[in-house]
Amino acid sequence: MASWTLETIDWGRFDASKVDPEILRNIKAAALVERNGGDYGTYLGRVFADDPQFMEAVNTWVVEEIQHGMALGRWAVLADPAWDFEAAFQRFRDGYKLPLDVESSVRGSQAGEMMARCIVETGTSSYYSALKDATDEPVLKQVCAKIAADEFRHYKLFYAHLRRCLQRDRLSRWSRLRIGWGRLKESEDDELAYAYFAANEPADAIYDRKRYMRAYARRAYPLYRQTHVQRAMAMILKAVGLQPQGWLNRLLTSIGLRFLRHNAKRLAASGA
User: Fold this and answer.
1) Is residue 190 part of a domain?
2) Segment 72-107, tens digit of pLDDT
3) Model pLDDT, residue 272
């Protein structure tokens, strides 16, 4: 169980003058995705139905993910009292569905699923770390610090179970790399785009995945610093089975930073 609760957060320190309206839009979207952790728990419960050891950990993970969403949602309402968190969450749930009727992992094996989960936790831990360092609003900084720490701990959880599953599934480094790259590409799928749409657009707006993914990315990419990218690359390399530090990390960090900075400028220039 996480070492904090909603009551742990010092909500009285909220400073409306330090709210960045661009960051606020992405926080609203993130609140919806995090709060939807129950559906991911259902999916993992079907994939790992024969693994009670892992499912005990998943049940705790679900509680923590939902708490992340509730904390982010509460902050967003402080920043924008007119925002209806419950209505936005229902809109997201109505429009975005996870594959909950599966009998096995969409990654091909349980080890593949663990690999994908490591990639997700890498992304979330680095993103909330970047948010923490980018915002001057003290409550959001505290919330993001708590969430980032949780997500890094979640990565360690999934990595430990990945190693256990690899003893049976025997995924090669190439297979892990392929699954990891595939999951990275899925960050541009409907989940974040639809969450951004459901959280920020009026009821009569028409959903366009590419448009809303670009809108989300334009606000997210500029937040990352070298330390965030470097740590993320180390976590990915470790999950793949490669040396997390050294020349490969430096190369991938450099490429990642160039990608983020180039696309941040491109998206800003296009008015995404």
Assistant:
1) yes
2) 999 999 999 999 999 999 999 999 988 777 877 878
3) 66
Neighbours of 65 (CB within 10 A): 24
- The pLDDT confidence band at residue 2, using thresholds 50, 70 and 90, is low
Residue 48 belongs to a domain: yes
Tokens of 187: 């960050």
197-209: pLDDT as tens digits: 999 999 999 999 9
Whole domain around residue 189: which residue ranges?
Answer: 18-225
Place of tokens 């049976």: 168
Q: Which two structure tokens, joined as six digits, stand for 14? A: 């909220």
Q: 135 in a domain, yes or no? A: yes
User: Residue 261 has which token pair?
Assistant: 């900075």
Q: What is the 3-state secondary structure (H, E, C) of the chain?
A: CCCCCHHHCCHHHCCHHHCCHHHHHHHHHHHHHHHCHHHHHHHHHHHCCCCHHHHHHHHHHHHHHHHHHHHHHHHHHHHCCCCCHHHHHHHHHHHCCCCCCCCCCCCCCHHHHHHHHHHHHHHHHHHHHHHHHHCCCHHHHHHHHHHHHHHHHHHHHHHHHHHHHHHHHCCCHHHHHHHHHHHHHHHHCHHHHHHHHHHHCCCCCCCCHHHHHHHHHHHHHHHCCHHHHHHHHHHHHHHHCCCCCCHHHHHHHHHHHHHHHHHHHHHHHHCC
pLDDT of residue 182: 81
pLDDT at 144: 98
CATH code, domain with 124: 1.10.620.20
Residue with tokens 């995404």: 272
Backbone torsion region of residue 90, taken as left when φ is above 0, otherwise alpha when ψ lies between -120 and 50, otherwise beta: alpha
- Quick check: pTM over 0.90? yes
